[in-house]
Records
---
Amino acid sequence: MSLPRFYPIFDHTDWLRRVLPLGVKLVQLRIKDLTGEALNAQITQAESLCRTHGATLVVNDHWQAAIDTGATWVHLGQEDLDTADIPAMRRAGLKLGLSTHDHAELDRALSHDPDYVALGPVYPTILKKMKWHEQGLDKLTEWKRLIGDVPLVAIGGMSVERAGGAYAAGADIVSAVTDITLNPDPEARVQHWIEVTR
């Protein structure tokens, strides 16, 4: 199955209730401050919302919770790979997206046969402090050449206005966070995203 071209990331299911009815078909739940039953409840709720709206949910980081709740996708950063049980995830049928920033990380990611590879930050991002400087569009083009048919996600500082350049550079999917969550009208912004990424 080919993945949708627009991939927003949110930190709570309340966001999913707002954006899924607008037509978002691929969404990541990135929860940093919950564990145990509270975390599982959020993931279960998110899965249910996504099923209702015909969307795909990707769980960030929490691979064990993803297995426990019957999720279908998980996204891992490089530091998560240090402790993640990839064989257990695959046995559970989980699809896997992996973050990359340099060639060593890309080689490591590809060794796990990922279902998508993310490169970022393409542009400077305010979302989190990163040791990585902006990667730029040329790096997207290089990554796409190196990974071939594996879907490539552009993330970091992405906006509606920058989406076209990322696609032209080789990205298959563009991911957005603060361009939506910090917008004065998030719903209108999501609708704009959907229009430009059709």
---
Amino acid sequence: MASKSLIVDNKKFDISYEIVNPTASKDIVFLHGWGSNKEIMKNSFGKYLNNFRHIYIDMPGFGKSSNSYDLTTNDYVKIVDEFLKLLNSSKDIIAGHSYGGKVSTLLNPKNLVLLSSAGILEEKPFDVKLKIAFAKIFNKLGLSSLTKSFRSSDVNQMSEQMYSTFKNVVNEDFSTHFSNFQNNALIFWGEKDTATSLSSGKKIASLIEKSTFISYDGDHYFFAHNAKDISERIENGIL
């Protein structure tokens, strides 16, 4: 594991990363999902795709990469893009899980791999809608401190900067971005995924013209149990 510092838009970031197969001539970059880290991606794919240089990154605010700013998805794209330039990455393949799928798409790699990607807005359960409505009312009444009682436990553990970032990115509709992606895409999904539904995966596949869609028996982290097959499909399906 290593770390590099960079400055993007006058903001300093220390990015934790790890490289596997450092002498390989082509790259595959792995971007984790919200609340996750590079270790989950490395533990799944680190022993496969031996002809590629693996680049595992903790995006700012996750894993061992700290963050002191309110960020947007476009900020994450800029940061990761500048970081990959520091590593002289050719962006042959970028694989993104969940939120990392949105960042990966905007990085416009030669080959895009989406693993249960976020980016399609889905109907929220009634109890979630109710919490959001009450939170908005309290904010308007100047009682913003009470809105914390409506946050889920994982959200409550976020710093204020990451909570602001979460609010910036959570409800983005990436349909247009998926439609505009012109390169090769491999889309993998868990059939029992409740975080990003199977129907969302099929919609993304319909939006990206040059895409292949494969689903597996599993949840949002289906790839942990199917990494070997996914890796073989990546090797056989890239341009």
---
Amino acid sequence: MTPLGEIVSTARRRLSWLVRDRFPNRKVVRDVQGVRLVLPWSHRLPDYAGPGSPYGQNLVELAHALAEAAPPLTVLDVGANVGDSALQILNATDGRVLCVEADTFYLDFLHRNVDADDRITVVESLLAVDDAAAATTAVRTGGTTRFVKGEDPDAMPSIAPGALRAAEPDFSELRLVKSDTDGYDVALVPAVAEAWADSRPVLFFEYDPYLTRIAGYDPLSVWPRLEELGYREAAVWNHAGLPVGQMTTAELAERSPELDDFPAKRPGSRSYWDVALAHEDDDRARGVLDRLVPRAQTR
């Protein structure tokens, strides 16, 4: 697409969002990357995940490869939203998914989308550690939710990772953890990894320094914590779902400022990484990451 064409396309998309955001409760049915979903009209997912788009497919490919390398596949989906990740994973391979969602607005859509699939279990809770449990007011933007401290709590009650594991014995052996919680991932992912330390699950999460700081956390704090738990190398994709390469946790910390530089290049935009880490003792999972994101690709 030419630069002019890209500008026109972006303008049209933003105009569409402006109109759709005025009707947040309107329900629509959309086919997104192989699965049919009931969505709020304002949801951005169909815009990002159009035909041929790699958006979100890194997680699906990772789940499929893990299911083949070391079945059975059991997944914890933190911040399940409307259930798109869970359904796309189970459309690609067999397994079981534990969806955790705290936003009452998106829980309605989640249940509409996944309740017919007995391989999916929904937990209506806010997965939280430390003072994150006090952040119970939902801030919704274009299909995602982050929770902040406020006077009008509208989140489900919180649950700690250890309590979640005890409450869901069918998922005592996790193979994959996916977390997308708009900034809280740097606190939640290490806590989940510690709660399921004996399972050594693969960790997949969105690393967004901008939202992490809004949530009140230091973006760099996650890397030494994961290293202590035995997670030292990661496969990395950019915000569009395209491979960046493999990095050590030290390299991730060193290169993290690249994400802060992004808005200066494109005003009004920001960038993030999708990262997947396999435990240092999990040779099969490390082999999967090597196939998905070859080490030679790192730049």
